[in-house]
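Model: You mentioned two targets. I'll fold them one after the other.
Researcher: Yes, keep them separate.
Model: Target one:
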Amino acid sequence: MDEHTDQAQGNVGLNRRMLGKLLVIAVMMFGFGYALVPIYKQICELTGVNILTPKDISLKEISNSQVDLSREVTVEFDANTQGPWRFRPVVSSMKVHPGEMAQIVYEVVNKQAVKMDAQAIPSYAPQQAANYFKKMECFCFKQQTLEANEARQMPVVFYIDPAIPKDVKTITLSYTFFEVGGKTQSLAMAAQEQK
Protein backbone atom coordinates (compact mmCIF):
# COMPACT_ATOMS: atom_id res chain seq x y z
CA MET A 1 0.00 0.00 0.00
CA ASP A 2 2.75 2.46 0.90
CA GLU A 3 4.49 1.81 -2.41
CA HIS A 4 1.32 2.59 -4.40
CA THR A 5 0.59 5.66 -2.27
CA ASP A 6 4.13 7.01 -2.79
CA GLN A 7 3.87 6.38 -6.54
CA ALA A 8 0.45 8.08 -6.75
CA GLN A 9 1.73 11.09 -4.79
CA GLY A 10 4.77 11.23 -7.09
CA ASN A 11 2.49 11.17 -10.15
CA VAL A 12 0.35 13.96 -8.65
CA GLY A 13 3.51 16.03 -8.11
CA LEU A 14 4.65 15.37 -11.68
CA ASN A 15 1.22 16.26 -13.03
CA ARG A 16 1.17 19.53 -11.07
CA ARG A 17 4.61 20.51 -12.38
CA MET A 18 3.56 19.64 -15.94
CA LEU A 19 0.34 21.66 -15.53
CA GLY A 20 2.38 24.61 -14.25
CA LYS A 21 4.74 24.41 -17.22
CA LEU A 22 1.84 24.19 -19.65
CA LEU A 23 0.14 27.21 -18.06
CA VAL A 24 3.37 29.23 -18.34
CA ILE A 25 3.70 28.24 -22.01
CA ALA A 26 0.05 29.15 -22.70
CA VAL A 27 0.49 32.57 -21.04
CA MET A 28 3.70 33.18 -23.01
CA MET A 29 1.98 32.23 -26.29
CA PHE A 30 -0.91 34.59 -25.55
CA GLY A 31 1.55 37.39 -24.70
CA PHE A 32 3.50 36.78 -27.91
CA GLY A 33 0.32 36.84 -29.99
CA TYR A 34 -0.81 40.04 -28.29
CA ALA A 35 2.60 41.66 -28.94
CA LEU A 36 2.67 40.74 -32.66
CA VAL A 37 0.59 43.75 -33.79
CA PRO A 38 2.85 46.45 -32.31
CA ILE A 39 5.93 44.48 -33.36
CA TYR A 40 4.58 44.26 -36.92
CA LYS A 41 3.86 48.01 -36.97
CA GLN A 42 7.39 48.79 -35.76
CA ILE A 43 8.96 46.52 -38.38
CA CYS A 44 6.83 48.14 -41.10
CA GLU A 45 7.84 51.63 -39.94
CA LEU A 46 11.52 50.69 -39.90
CA THR A 47 11.44 49.06 -43.31
CA GLY A 48 9.01 51.55 -44.91
CA VAL A 49 6.70 48.78 -46.12
CA ASN A 50 2.91 48.75 -45.75
CA ILE A 51 2.74 51.87 -43.64
CA LEU A 52 -0.71 53.06 -42.67
CA THR A 53 -0.06 56.73 -42.14
CA PRO A 54 -2.13 59.71 -41.26
CA LYS A 55 -1.59 62.83 -43.34
CA ASP A 56 2.12 63.26 -43.90
CA ILE A 57 2.03 67.02 -43.48
CA SER A 58 -0.45 69.86 -43.17
CA LEU A 59 -1.02 72.55 -45.78
CA LYS A 60 0.42 75.19 -43.42
CA GLU A 61 3.75 73.37 -43.34
CA ILE A 62 4.28 73.61 -47.10
CA SER A 63 3.24 77.21 -47.68
CA ASN A 64 6.91 78.27 -47.74
CA SER A 65 8.18 75.37 -49.84
CA GLN A 66 10.26 76.07 -52.91
CA VAL A 67 9.84 74.23 -56.17
CA ASP A 68 13.15 72.95 -57.52
CA LEU A 69 12.75 73.63 -61.25
CA SER A 70 16.28 72.43 -61.96
CA ARG A 71 15.32 68.76 -61.76
CA GLU A 72 12.43 66.35 -62.25
CA VAL A 73 11.52 63.12 -60.55
CA THR A 74 9.48 60.49 -62.38
CA VAL A 75 6.75 59.05 -60.18
CA GLU A 76 5.44 55.67 -61.31
CA PHE A 77 2.08 54.43 -60.03
CA ASP A 78 1.19 50.81 -59.34
CA ALA A 79 -1.93 49.07 -58.03
CA ASN A 80 -2.44 45.61 -56.52
CA THR A 81 -5.65 44.10 -55.26
CA GLN A 82 -6.57 41.51 -52.69
CA GLY A 83 -10.26 41.15 -53.36
CA PRO A 84 -13.08 41.25 -55.90
CA TRP A 85 -12.50 44.65 -57.53
CA ARG A 86 -10.74 46.45 -60.29
CA PHE A 87 -8.19 48.95 -59.00
CA ARG A 88 -5.80 51.05 -61.08
CA PRO A 89 -4.22 54.49 -61.47
CA VAL A 90 -5.56 56.65 -64.33
CA VAL A 91 -1.96 57.29 -65.50
CA SER A 92 1.02 55.01 -65.05
CA SER A 93 3.58 57.77 -64.38
CA MET A 94 4.18 61.52 -64.26
CA LYS A 95 7.15 63.85 -63.95
CA VAL A 96 7.17 66.34 -61.08
CA HIS A 97 9.60 68.93 -59.79
CA PRO A 98 10.55 68.48 -56.12
CA GLY A 99 8.36 70.80 -54.05
CA GLU A 100 5.62 70.93 -56.70
CA MET A 101 2.09 69.85 -55.73
CA ALA A 102 0.70 67.09 -57.94
CA GLN A 103 -2.37 64.88 -58.07
CA ILE A 104 -2.99 61.35 -59.28
CA VAL A 105 -6.37 59.60 -59.36
CA TYR A 106 -6.92 55.91 -58.72
CA GLU A 107 -10.09 54.21 -59.93
CA VAL A 108 -11.73 51.36 -58.07
CA VAL A 109 -14.77 49.27 -59.03
CA ASN A 110 -16.48 46.88 -56.62
CA LYS A 111 -17.38 43.93 -58.85
CA GLN A 112 -19.56 42.30 -56.18
CA ALA A 113 -23.29 42.64 -55.64
CA VAL A 114 -22.67 43.44 -51.95
CA LYS A 115 -21.21 46.37 -50.03
CA MET A 116 -17.51 45.99 -49.21
CA ASP A 117 -15.10 47.68 -46.79
CA ALA A 118 -11.54 48.07 -48.02
CA GLN A 119 -8.22 49.65 -47.09
CA ALA A 120 -5.28 50.73 -49.25
CA ILE A 121 -1.72 50.41 -48.01
CA PRO A 122 1.06 52.34 -49.75
CA SER A 123 4.62 51.24 -50.32
CA TYR A 124 7.51 53.01 -52.02
CA ALA A 125 10.52 52.12 -54.10
CA PRO A 126 13.26 52.92 -53.50
CA GLN A 127 12.57 52.53 -49.80
CA GLN A 128 14.31 55.80 -48.88
CA ALA A 129 11.75 57.69 -51.00
CA ALA A 130 9.08 57.12 -48.31
CA ASN A 131 10.71 59.85 -46.23
CA TYR A 132 10.41 62.39 -49.07
CA PHE A 133 7.02 61.49 -50.57
CA LYS A 134 4.52 63.74 -48.77
CA LYS A 135 0.79 63.01 -49.19
CA MET A 136 -1.63 65.86 -48.46
CA GLU A 137 -4.75 63.93 -49.38
CA CYS A 138 -5.02 60.20 -49.87
CA PHE A 139 -7.71 57.53 -49.91
CA CYS A 140 -5.26 55.43 -47.87
CA PHE A 141 -5.81 57.61 -44.79
CA LYS A 142 -9.03 55.74 -43.96
CA GLN A 143 -11.05 52.67 -44.88
CA GLN A 144 -13.24 52.92 -47.95
CA THR A 145 -16.78 51.55 -48.13
CA LEU A 146 -17.87 50.62 -51.64
CA GLU A 147 -21.50 49.91 -52.39
CA ALA A 148 -22.47 46.98 -54.62
CA ASN A 149 -21.02 47.50 -58.14
CA GLU A 150 -19.88 51.03 -57.21
CA ALA A 151 -17.14 52.74 -59.23
CA ARG A 152 -15.18 55.52 -57.57
CA GLN A 153 -12.28 57.82 -58.39
CA MET A 154 -9.98 58.51 -55.45
CA PRO A 155 -7.32 61.25 -55.55
CA VAL A 156 -3.85 61.38 -54.04
CA VAL A 157 -2.46 64.90 -53.65
CA PHE A 158 1.27 64.90 -52.98
CA TYR A 159 4.60 66.59 -53.38
CA ILE A 160 8.17 65.38 -53.19
CA ASP A 161 10.32 67.06 -50.56
CA PRO A 162 13.04 69.13 -52.27
CA ALA A 163 15.55 67.59 -49.82
CA ILE A 164 15.28 64.27 -51.70
CA PRO A 165 18.76 63.03 -52.68
CA LYS A 166 19.71 64.05 -56.21
CA ASP A 167 20.45 60.46 -57.21
CA VAL A 168 16.75 59.50 -56.76
CA LYS A 169 15.30 60.08 -60.21
CA THR A 170 12.36 57.64 -60.10
CA ILE A 171 9.92 56.79 -57.30
CA THR A 172 7.33 54.04 -57.49
CA LEU A 173 4.20 54.52 -55.40
CA SER A 174 2.39 51.22 -55.08
CA TYR A 175 -0.93 50.61 -53.34
CA THR A 176 -2.36 47.27 -52.26
CA PHE A 177 -6.14 47.50 -51.93
CA PHE A 178 -7.64 44.74 -49.79
CA GLU A 179 -10.94 43.80 -48.21
CA VAL A 180 -11.42 44.53 -44.52
CA GLY A 181 -13.58 42.10 -42.58
CA GLY A 182 -13.56 39.18 -45.02
CA LYS A 183 -17.19 39.42 -46.19
CA THR A 184 -16.36 37.98 -49.61
CA GLN A 185 -14.94 34.78 -48.14
CA SER A 186 -17.93 34.43 -45.80
CA LEU A 187 -20.38 34.89 -48.69
CA ALA A 188 -18.49 32.41 -50.89
CA MET A 189 -18.53 29.82 -48.09
CA ALA A 190 -22.25 30.39 -47.49
CA ALA A 191 -22.97 29.97 -51.21
CA GLN A 192 -21.05 26.68 -51.28
CA GLU A 193 -22.90 25.38 -48.22
CA GLN A 194 -26.26 26.07 -49.92
CA LYS A 195 -25.28 23.89 -52.91
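Model: Target two:
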Amino acid sequence: MNQEYLKKTEIVNFEHPTIQSLITERKWHELDDYNKIGTAYQFVKDEILFGYNESDDISASEVLSDGYGQCNTKGNLLMALLRGLRIQCRFHGFTIDQQLQKGAIPTYVFWLAPKYIIHSWVEVYFEGRWINLEGFILDNQYLTSIQQKFNQIKDNFCGYGVATKCFSSPDTDWRGTDTYIQKEGIHDDFGLYNSPDEFYLEKGTNLSGVKRWMYQKVIRHLINFNVTNLRKNKALEVQNA
Protein backbone atom coordinates (compact mmCIF):
# COMPACT_ATOMS: atom_id res chain seq x y z
CA MET A 1 0.00 0.00 0.00
CA ASN A 2 1.41 3.38 -1.06
CA GLN A 3 0.95 5.86 1.79
CA GLU A 4 1.23 8.79 -0.65
CA TYR A 5 -2.18 7.77 -1.99
CA LEU A 6 -3.71 7.89 1.50
CA LYS A 7 -2.28 11.17 2.81
CA LYS A 8 -4.31 14.16 3.90
CA THR A 9 -3.46 17.51 2.30
CA GLU A 10 -4.84 21.03 2.50
CA ILE A 11 -7.26 20.19 -0.31
CA VAL A 12 -7.83 16.52 0.52
CA ASN A 13 -8.65 17.35 4.13
CA PHE A 14 -10.52 14.18 5.08
CA GLU A 15 -9.91 14.70 8.80
CA HIS A 16 -12.17 17.77 8.77
CA PRO A 17 -15.10 17.26 11.20
CA THR A 18 -17.80 17.60 8.53
CA ILE A 19 -16.22 14.91 6.37
CA GLN A 20 -15.65 12.60 9.32
CA SER A 21 -19.24 13.14 10.46
CA LEU A 22 -20.57 12.24 7.01
CA ILE A 23 -18.55 9.02 6.91
CA THR A 24 -19.57 8.08 10.46
CA GLU A 25 -23.27 8.94 10.14
CA ARG A 26 -23.63 6.90 6.96
CA LYS A 27 -21.59 4.02 8.43
CA TRP A 28 -19.41 3.83 5.33
CA HIS A 29 -16.55 2.37 7.37
CA GLU A 30 -18.57 -0.83 7.77
CA LEU A 31 -18.72 -1.51 4.02
CA ASP A 32 -16.39 -3.61 1.89
CA ASP A 33 -14.05 -1.78 -0.48
CA TYR A 34 -16.32 -2.09 -3.52
CA ASN A 35 -19.20 -0.45 -1.68
CA LYS A 36 -17.00 2.10 0.07
CA ILE A 37 -15.95 3.35 -3.36
CA GLY A 38 -19.47 3.10 -4.72
CA THR A 39 -21.23 4.97 -1.92
CA ALA A 40 -18.63 7.75 -1.84
CA TYR A 41 -18.77 8.01 -5.63
CA GLN A 42 -22.56 8.10 -5.88
CA PHE A 43 -22.73 10.63 -3.04
CA VAL A 44 -20.39 13.00 -4.87
CA LYS A 45 -22.14 12.36 -8.18
CA ASP A 46 -25.74 12.92 -7.15
CA GLU A 47 -25.88 14.57 -3.74
CA ILE A 48 -23.26 17.17 -4.63
CA LEU A 49 -24.94 18.93 -7.54
CA PHE A 50 -23.17 20.05 -10.69
CA GLY A 51 -22.17 23.71 -10.28
CA TYR A 52 -19.27 26.12 -10.28
CA ASN A 53 -17.36 26.89 -7.06
CA GLU A 54 -15.12 29.83 -6.26
CA SER A 55 -11.96 28.06 -7.42
CA ASP A 56 -10.67 24.64 -8.51
CA ASP A 57 -8.30 24.37 -5.54
CA ILE A 58 -10.76 24.78 -2.67
CA SER A 59 -10.66 22.12 0.04
CA ALA A 60 -12.88 19.06 0.08
CA SER A 61 -14.70 20.33 3.16
CA GLU A 62 -15.53 23.58 1.33
CA VAL A 63 -17.00 21.60 -1.57
CA LEU A 64 -19.11 19.63 0.90
CA SER A 65 -20.26 22.89 2.49
CA ASP A 66 -21.14 24.40 -0.92
CA GLY A 67 -23.15 21.31 -1.85
CA TYR A 68 -22.16 21.63 -5.50
CA GLY A 69 -19.08 21.33 -7.68
CA GLN A 70 -17.59 20.60 -11.09
CA CYS A 71 -14.94 18.13 -12.28
CA ASN A 72 -12.04 19.44 -10.22
CA THR A 73 -13.85 20.35 -7.03
CA LYS A 74 -16.03 17.26 -6.93
CA GLY A 75 -12.80 15.33 -7.44
CA ASN A 76 -11.29 17.03 -4.40
CA LEU A 77 -14.20 15.80 -2.28
CA LEU A 78 -14.22 12.30 -3.76
CA MET A 79 -10.50 11.90 -3.03
CA ALA A 80 -11.04 13.04 0.56
CA LEU A 81 -13.89 10.58 1.09
CA LEU A 82 -11.90 7.72 -0.43
CA ARG A 83 -8.80 8.43 1.62
CA GLY A 84 -10.94 8.88 4.69
CA LEU A 85 -12.12 5.32 4.02
CA ARG A 86 -8.54 4.10 3.54
CA ILE A 87 -8.98 3.62 -0.21
CA GLN A 88 -5.94 4.57 -2.29
CA CYS A 89 -6.56 7.21 -4.94
CA ARG A 90 -4.63 9.69 -7.06
CA PHE A 91 -5.17 12.71 -9.33
CA HIS A 92 -4.93 12.76 -13.14
CA GLY A 93 -4.71 16.20 -14.70
CA PHE A 94 -5.85 17.31 -18.17
CA THR A 95 -7.31 20.19 -20.12
CA ILE A 96 -10.59 20.04 -21.99
CA ASP A 97 -11.80 22.11 -24.93
CA GLN A 98 -14.02 25.01 -23.89
CA GLN A 99 -16.73 23.88 -26.34
CA LEU A 100 -17.61 21.13 -23.88
CA GLN A 101 -18.90 23.81 -21.48
CA LYS A 102 -21.00 25.71 -24.02
CA GLY A 103 -24.62 25.70 -22.92
CA ALA A 104 -23.77 25.16 -19.27
CA ILE A 105 -21.84 28.43 -19.46
CA PRO A 106 -24.26 30.91 -21.12
CA THR A 107 -23.19 32.52 -24.39
CA TYR A 108 -23.10 36.02 -22.87
CA VAL A 109 -20.29 35.05 -20.45
CA PHE A 110 -18.62 32.35 -22.56
CA TRP A 111 -15.84 34.78 -23.50
CA LEU A 112 -14.42 34.30 -20.00
CA ALA A 113 -13.65 30.60 -20.47
CA PRO A 114 -10.08 29.72 -21.48
CA LYS A 115 -9.72 27.89 -24.80
CA TYR A 116 -8.47 24.86 -22.89
CA ILE A 117 -9.88 24.48 -19.38
CA ILE A 118 -8.12 22.70 -16.51
CA HIS A 119 -9.77 19.32 -15.98
CA SER A 120 -9.14 16.23 -13.89
CA TRP A 121 -10.44 12.87 -12.88
CA VAL A 122 -9.79 10.60 -9.90
CA GLU A 123 -8.07 7.23 -10.20
CA VAL A 124 -8.94 4.69 -7.51
CA TYR A 125 -7.03 1.50 -6.71
CA PHE A 126 -9.33 -1.49 -6.57
CA GLU A 127 -8.60 -5.21 -6.88
CA GLY A 128 -5.04 -4.69 -8.07
CA ARG A 129 -5.67 -2.07 -10.75
CA TRP A 130 -6.32 1.63 -11.22
CA ILE A 131 -9.82 2.64 -12.29
CA ASN A 132 -10.60 6.01 -13.87
CA LEU A 133 -13.51 7.89 -12.29
CA GLU A 134 -14.86 10.88 -14.22
CA GLY A 135 -18.56 10.13 -14.47
CA PHE A 136 -19.36 11.79 -11.13
CA ILE A 137 -19.26 15.33 -12.54
CA LEU A 138 -22.92 15.70 -13.54
CA ASP A 139 -25.69 14.83 -11.11
CA ASN A 140 -28.34 12.51 -12.50
CA GLN A 141 -31.09 15.12 -12.53
CA TYR A 142 -29.00 17.58 -14.53
CA LEU A 143 -27.77 14.94 -17.00
CA THR A 144 -31.27 13.54 -17.51
CA SER A 145 -32.56 17.05 -18.19
CA ILE A 146 -29.92 17.59 -20.89
CA GLN A 147 -30.66 14.19 -22.43
CA GLN A 148 -34.36 15.09 -22.60
CA LYS A 149 -33.54 18.49 -24.10
CA PHE A 150 -31.60 16.77 -26.90
CA ASN A 151 -33.48 13.48 -27.02
CA GLN A 152 -32.90 13.05 -30.75
CA ILE A 153 -29.15 12.57 -30.14
CA LYS A 154 -28.05 9.08 -29.10
CA ASP A 155 -24.31 8.92 -29.75
CA ASN A 156 -21.73 11.74 -30.05
CA PHE A 157 -22.52 14.85 -28.02
CA CYS A 158 -20.40 17.80 -26.89
CA GLY A 159 -21.74 20.67 -24.79
CA TYR A 160 -23.55 21.45 -21.53
CA GLY A 161 -20.73 19.79 -19.55
CA VAL A 162 -20.89 16.59 -21.62
CA ALA A 163 -18.42 15.08 -24.11
CA THR A 164 -19.26 11.46 -24.85
CA LYS A 165 -19.73 9.00 -27.69
CA CYS A 166 -22.78 7.48 -26.00
CA PHE A 167 -25.00 10.39 -24.98
CA SER A 168 -28.16 8.34 -24.48
CA SER A 169 -26.52 5.91 -22.03
CA PRO A 170 -23.08 6.96 -20.75
CA ASP A 171 -21.37 4.81 -18.12
CA THR A 172 -21.58 7.15 -15.14
CA ASP A 173 -22.61 4.83 -12.28
CA TRP A 174 -20.09 2.87 -10.21
CA ARG A 175 -19.87 -0.76 -11.33
CA GLY A 176 -16.21 -1.43 -10.57
CA THR A 177 -15.05 -0.12 -13.96
CA ASP A 178 -14.06 3.21 -15.56
CA THR A 179 -16.69 5.95 -15.67
CA TYR A 180 -16.60 8.93 -18.04
CA ILE A 181 -18.76 11.90 -19.03
CA GLN A 182 -16.27 14.47 -20.42
CA LYS A 183 -13.48 12.21 -21.71
CA GLU A 184 -14.04 12.98 -25.40
CA GLY A 185 -13.31 16.66 -24.79
CA ILE A 186 -9.77 16.12 -23.47
CA HIS A 187 -7.02 18.13 -25.16
CA ASP A 188 -3.86 17.92 -22.98
CA ASP A 189 -2.85 15.06 -20.70
CA PHE A 190 -0.68 16.31 -17.82
CA GLY A 191 -0.31 12.90 -16.21
CA LEU A 192 -0.55 11.63 -12.65
CA TYR A 193 -0.13 13.44 -9.33
CA ASN A 194 -0.32 12.22 -5.76
CA SER A 195 -2.75 15.02 -4.91
CA PRO A 196 -4.59 17.98 -6.44
CA ASP A 197 -2.38 20.22 -4.28
CA GLU A 198 0.71 19.13 -6.23
CA PHE A 199 -1.06 19.67 -9.55
CA TYR A 200 -2.33 23.19 -8.83
CA LEU A 201 1.03 24.20 -7.37
CA GLU A 202 2.61 23.27 -10.70
CA LYS A 203 -0.11 24.20 -13.21
CA GLY A 204 -2.19 26.86 -11.45
CA THR A 205 -5.95 27.19 -11.84
CA ASN A 206 -8.07 28.32 -14.77
CA LEU A 207 -8.27 32.06 -14.17
CA SER A 208 -6.13 34.83 -12.70
CA GLY A 209 -6.22 38.58 -12.16
CA VAL A 210 -9.32 40.56 -13.09
CA LYS A 211 -10.97 37.59 -14.82
CA ARG A 212 -10.64 35.53 -11.65
CA TRP A 213 -12.17 38.30 -9.56
CA MET A 214 -15.07 38.76 -12.01
CA TYR A 215 -15.67 35.02 -12.11
CA GLN A 216 -15.67 34.63 -8.32
CA LYS A 217 -17.83 37.65 -7.53
CA VAL A 218 -20.35 37.74 -10.39
CA ILE A 219 -20.02 35.41 -13.34
CA ARG A 220 -20.04 32.03 -11.61
CA HIS A 221 -23.34 32.97 -9.96
CA LEU A 222 -24.83 33.67 -13.40
CA ILE A 223 -23.51 30.32 -14.63
CA ASN A 224 -24.95 28.50 -11.61
CA PHE A 225 -28.30 30.20 -12.16
CA ASN A 226 -28.27 28.87 -15.72
CA VAL A 227 -27.30 25.35 -14.57
CA THR A 228 -30.10 25.38 -11.98
CA ASN A 229 -32.63 26.34 -14.65
CA LEU A 230 -31.40 23.58 -16.93
CA ARG A 231 -31.80 21.09 -14.09
CA LYS A 232 -35.30 22.37 -13.25
CA ASN A 233 -36.51 21.57 -16.77
CA LYS A 234 -36.61 17.90 -15.74
CA ALA A 235 -38.40 18.64 -12.49
CA LEU A 236 -41.09 20.60 -14.33
CA GLU A 237 -41.56 17.81 -16.87
CA VAL A 238 -41.95 15.23 -14.10
CA GLN A 239 -44.57 17.37 -12.35
CA ASN A 240 -46.52 17.81 -15.57
CA ALA A 241 -46.31 14.14 -16.56
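Researcher: Noted. Anything on target two?
Model: The longest strand covers residues 116-126.
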